[in-house]
Design goal:
Blueprint (H helix, E strand, L loop, with lengths): L12 H6 L4 E2 L5 H6 L12 H4 L1 H14 L3 E3 L7 H4 L3 H16 L5 E7 L10 H17 L4 E7 L2 H11 L6 E5 L12 H11 L3 E5 L4 H18 L4 E6 L29 H14 L3 E4 L5 H10 L1 H4 L22 H4 L4 H6 L18
Parallel strand pairs: 1-8, 2-3, 3-4, 4-5, 5-6, 6-7, 7-8
Helix pairs in contact: 4-6, 4-12, 6-7, 7-8, 8-9, 9-10, 10-11, 11-12
Length: 363
């Protein structure tokens, strides 16, 4: 199987999805760049695109090499209410970095906005839409390929975001950071999806806050809700790279390990093979990750779905399928691990004999 797609004119996001093509998103920026020393926890704002552009460029490149078809601008919490006077320079620089890397492969650029801190306190539609519109003006000037409204706890605010992004005439995706219980006002996932599609989103789903299994359950509920109302949209999932079966309605941010003690929860590459396959079988064709979702996780999606896509990512040149490269090891018991059945059935230990397997959320 070829390790790259043949070069040619890039198709748009809806052209790809309408044809049944699998689109692979990117993964973790905030959590990953915090670990690498370029983002400050707490504020979680993306000044790194201006202060340390090489670090952001490198991470984009790692995701591209691993198989990502979308370079999402690193503009999480980059609105004026979070970044004051720096917001415009940050949004512009983030677009430039994403476009530069996308041009090195078969990737599209998505301009991303997220929920505001203002909504919980003021719910002023006009002021909040103004914040979204400011970012949209930069994305339009930089001519991104499509737009993503992501990480919304409340469907009302997400609908406002979609309404603003639709003003551009570009395709809009919308993902909420909710679990099966619905948004923080109690609106169920199916109803959230329906409201987003009615607002103009062509792609709907979830991102962040919850692990692979929970995220897929929520998308399934969204799919059912759309089916019940006769609405149609492409489905999208970008879960955490952590296992979080014990979190409550607020997701992993309420777990005592957030954000500095999550490493024991990291999904293996084989967990992500399963996630990718289950997402595909559910009918999801835009599959990626969010916090904790590293480039090797993206590679796992690309390798699992290589039969459907017809090619492998560049990063697979250094990775034997299902551990096959272990056949070269000198120790026979390690060579015996060079098979799919071994890794699919492994129950990995944490190495922490006095730690619980689950936690109690703080909220």
């Amino acid at each position: 199987m070829a390790s790259t797609r043949a070069p040619g004119a890039k198709k748009g996001i809806l052209e790809r999805l309408d044809s049944g093509e699998v689109v692979i998103g990117d993964g973790s920026f905030l959590i990953t760049l915090e670990k690498r020393g370029y983002v400050k926890a707490g504020l979680w704002t993306p000044e790194a695109v201006v202060e340390h552009p090489n670090a952001v460029r490198q991470l984009h490149m790692e995701f591209l090499r691993a198989g990502s078809n979308v370079m999402q601008t690193f503009t999480f919490s980059a609105s004026e209410d979070s970044m004051e006077s720096k917001w415009e320079d940050v949004n512009a620089a983030a677009c430039d970095l994403a476009k530069e890397v996308a041009g090195k492969g078969d990737a599209l650029v998505a301009g991303g906005i997220c929920q505001t801190s203002m909504y919980q306190y003021h719910k002023d539609e006009d002021r909040i839409k103004k914040l979204f519109r400011q970012q949209l003006e930069v994305f339009t000037r930089k001519n991104v390929d499509f737009l993503i409204a992501e990480y919304f706890e409340y469907v009302e605010e997400a609908v406002w975001a979609v309404e603003v992004l639709k003003e551009s005439g570009k395709p809009v995706a919308a993902t909420m950071c909710i679990g099966p219980a619905g948004d923080m006002h109690g609106v169920r996932p199916g109803e959230c999806a329906a409201r987003l599609v009615k607002a103009g989103a062509s792609i709907v789903g979830v991102n962040c806050r919850f692990g692979p299994r929970t995220s897929l359950k929520t998308v399934e509920l969204m799919k059912e809700g759309l089916g019940a109302t006769g609405l149609k949209a492409h489905l999208m999932v970008q879960s955490l790279g952590f296992h979080t079966p014990d979190c409550g309605k607020g997701g992993f941010v309420d777990l005592p390990e957030y954000p500095f003690g999550l490493e024991p929860r990291v999904a293996t590459r084989w967990d992500i093979h399963k996630y990718a396959r289950e997402a595909y079988n559910l009918g999801v064709r835009y599959i990626g990750g969010c916090c904790g979702f590293e480039p090797y996780h993206i590679r796992a999606i690309a390798e699992e779905l290589a039969p459907e896509r017809g090619f492998l990512p560049l990063a697979s040149e250094k990775h034997g399928s299902w551990g096959s490269s272990l056949n070269m090891h000198t120790k026979p018991w390690i060579r015996a691990r060079a098979r799919r059945e071994y890794w699919e059935n492994l129950l990995p230990a944490s190495g922490r004999p006095f730690c619980p397997s689950l936690s109690k959320p703080d909220a």
